[in-house]
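Same chain as my last thread, 194 residues:
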Amino acid sequence: MFIDGPCGSLEARLDTAPVEKTTTAVLCHPHPQYGGSMHDGVLDAVAGVLLKKGINCLRFNFRGVGASDGTYDEGIGEVDDLCAVAKWVAAEYPRDDLWLCGYSFGSSIVWRSLAQLKPVQAILVAPPIGMMKFPEQPLTTKVLGIAGDADDFVNVEAYQQLLGDNSAVLAGADHFFTGMHAMLETSLEDLLSK
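reply #2:
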């Protein structure tokens, strides 16, 4: 499927939960310039947990990725892409609560869109704090985070300071959660049940 974006069509895929709870999560993928796309194993793991909890999952490719129009825009246009997708969700599923979830680069896009989109909940997976800017902001959204202590792209101390008690750190996990997708799923389930 395709969604109208600010610079053309955005390729997207909607997975509906077997038992829906009137919540739709938009999942944002890793860095477009390093092979990131909506077809990502970590996003598969996250979507699996959310779908089991009755949350629809909408993934999309940022501009210039896969069949999406446009070209990479340094994270600026990508925020606009996310806003366009969120607008589509609001039009198609007006009763649904909006959740946002981002992995790596995608988590920085989610973070920068919080004030504008005001989701009910946000999930940051391996947010590259230390490599990218995550400016402090007043949070009206509940933001959960999961990162590994062996992740070269995450400053774990800054990450924990940013999210406090809503941050989980997985021992031994790298940026890609190599061999640890099951642990990632369990950790996400635990965070969501708090």
